[in-house]
Amino acid sequence: MSGARHASLFLDMLAAERGASKNTLDAYRRDLDDYLEYLKEAGAQPDSAAAATIRGFMASLEERGLKASSAARRLSAVRQFHKFLYVEGYASADPTAAVSAPKRGRVLPKVLTIDQVDRLLQVAHDGVTRPEATPGERLRAARMACLLELLYATGLRVSELISLPRSAAKTRDRFLVVRGKGAKERLVPLTDAAREAAQAYLALLEEQGKVAGPWLFPADSESGYLTRQAFARELKSVAAGAGLRADKISPHVLRHAFASHLLQNGADLRVVQELLGHSDISTTQIYTHVLDERLKSMVRDLHPLSSGE
Q1: Cα–chain-centroid distance for residue 304?
Q2: Contacts of 139 (CB under 8 A, 6+ apart)
Q3: How far apart are CA 6 and CA 45, in angstroms?
């Protein structure tokens, strides 16, 4: 039986037994066509392919410059294809069982520059003082200014931020006590700008009689406070006003900016780990690219034999 016939039987099974959509079938067909073309060039057949053949195919994907994620998806299709052939009795073994998926590089977080964060904050604050703004628009703008100032000052997780109690806006301390993952408490710093934004927002909230429940960001939701989806949606609108692309902005990106900018300015990685609430420093080490750049700059600027260029 030819490889094309084997592939056709496999795709028929996906459609009939798993109810695969046309788009899914088309994606599998493209991946298998590529694989069968490789087998043809290698003088092999699907029902007799060896593990070395599969590894050769994976190596060919790397040579063609395919991303690890794309190569992993291609291998997944090939795995399912060979498993089908083995289970249905078309092949005596499954050669993919001994083949590992390509390692995916850890994706670096999207990072905003300090200037971009400044623009974002400015747009949020400008919305509060806009003369033609309605009371409701002014309150939403004040809430966004408060959210952004707090997030950039503390590096809180989004879930921690939106569920802050109203008392967080009344503190006179220069820090907040936050209950994070695993009910662990940690201290996070509060800047003057963050405290002022929180106090101004709370005053407006009380003035408009919108105070409800114990939350700083009350909302008509199941939890009683602002949802992360609503925050993300409103943030993209502010980003547009700051001239930033919507796909470059999310609440989590502000947390990354907090960590990256601290490291750029000389903070210790262990301190940033503590502030972010990471239990393991390996999680914080996604930011080591920032440290690498800082170390290069230090060597360039401070080493006695450096030309300073």
Answers
A1: 40
A2: 201, 204, 205, 208, 210
A3: 10
Reading the block at residue 172, the tokens are 């006179």
Rounded Cα gap, residues 213 and 31, in angstroms = 54
Per-residue pLDDT of the chain (309 residues; tens, 9 = 90+): 677 889 999 999 988 887 888 888 999 999 999 999 999 888 888 988 888 889 888 888 877 777 777 888 888 999 999 999 999 999 888 988 878 766 655 555 567 889 999 999 999 999 999 999 999 999 999 999 999 999 999 988 888 999 999 999 998 888 888 877 667 788 888 899 999 999 999 999 999 988 878 999 999 888 899 998 899 999 999 999 999 988 778 888 888 888 888 877 777 778 778 888 876 666 666 666 555 555 555 445 555 655 544
* 3-state class percentages of the chain: helix first, strand second, coil last, to nearest 5: 65, 5, 30
Who's near 188: CB < 8 A, 6+ residues apart? 153, 154, 155, 156, 175, 176, 178, 275
Q: Cα dist. 193→15, 55, 121 in Å?
A: 58, 56, 10
Q: Distance between CA atoms of 110 and 247, rounded to whole angstroms?
A: 10
Residues with a known catalytic role: 157, 181, 252, 255, 278, 287
Q: How many angstroms separate the CA atoms of 167 and 174, rounded?
A: 14
